[in-house]
Specification:
By secondary structure, this protein is of the alpha/beta class. The protein is built from 11 helices and 7 strands. Helix content is 43%, strand content 19%. Strand 2 (110-115), helix 5 (118-127) and strand 3 (133-137) form a beta-alpha-beta unit. Helix 1 runs parallel beside helix 10 and helix 3 (68-78) packs across helix 4 (97-106). The longest helix has 18 residues, at 18-35.
Length: 274
């Protein structure tokens, strides 16, 4: 398989069966875990930038500035919901950057990061030590928690690889307390989002907010281009450099073009358990 084949595969990622998407994500996560040190990369999302020139810049500690745009995606996704003193679950917590950010800045009572990768869970347990923050291995479609355990659930750029979105939504509804929130951000085609909206309503959630933030995502990937390009250039194995650029949606890739021409959209949902 040559580089063009890999590029074609990733550019058509969302047309493939979900079992294939899941396998590809797991493969990329293994590569990222082995090649990128903890100090290199704490987030695995595209990032977010406000398009309002009057928007006040999010105040961050110096240690968080390197991955500001990824932090801002978390901040925007949870905006409008008071998490202070609440019990929070993140499904698909990845390298733990978002879990650490929300724990430190928003002071929940507890924050559990759940991920299907045992290696990522070990990475997070090794590198994060914050009161109330914990990490656990688990499946998004079979959450290992009692009914009504959480006040809010965070899910960022993870749901697109689930084999059964209905089951995930059912599980989220089960473990949320009455009036609890699912705060979700992910990419879809327009057709896929119509299906997702129906699944959300059938699961019993009220849609409080639905927002296409694809232009904000594009701006973030463009502003963060140099850092991401250098990481790939320095750390990604030669045979995966082009594939890594596609996964990162760098300018000039098919994924970036799909965001730009509207064939892929990026949705932020605030959903409330009725």
């Amino acid at each position: 398989m040559d580089a063009w084949d890999l590029k074609r595969i990733i550019s058509n990622f969302h047309t493939y069966p979900k079992w294939m998407r899941t396998s590809m994500w797991r493969f990329m996560h293994r590569v990222l875990l082995s090649r990128f040190g903890f100090s290199d990369l704490k987030f695995l999302n595209y990032g977010y930038v406000s398009l309002d020139p009057k928007c006040e810049l999010l105040k961050l500690d110096e240690s968080d500035e390197l991955e500001r745009y990824s932090v801002q995606l978390y901040n925007h996704t949870i905006s409008g919901v008071n998490l202070k003193g609440k019990d929070i679950l993140e499904v698909g917590s990845g390298r733990g950057g978002g879990a650490s950010f929300i724990t430190r800045y928003y002071k929940p009572n507890s924050y559990v990061g759940l991920d299907l990768s045992k290696k990522l869970i070990r990475l997070c347990k090794k590198n994060y030590s914050l009161p109330g923050l914990s990490f656990i291995y688990g499946n998004a479609e079979n959450l290992p928690f009692e009914d009504m355990s959480f006040d809010a659930i965070v899910n960022i750029e993870s749901s697109g690889s689930y084999s059964n979105m209905d089951k995930f939504l059912s599980e989220v509804y089960r473990v949320l307390r009455p009036g609890g929130y699912l705060l979700l951000a992910d990419l879809r085609t327009i057709e896929e989002n119509e299906l997702l909206r129906n699944q959300i309503e059938e699961a019993g959630f009220n849609i409080i907010n639905e927002e296409n933030i694809v232009k904000n995502i594009l701006k973030a990937t463009d502003l963060d281009y140099e850092r991401r390009y250098k990481l790939i250039k320095d750390k990604a194995p030669l045979y995966l450099k082009n594939l890594s650029k596609e996964f990162s949606s760098l300018k000039g890739t098919k994924r970036h073009e799909s965001f730009d021409d509207g064939s892929l959209i990026y949705l932020r949902y605030m959903l409330k358990k009725s």
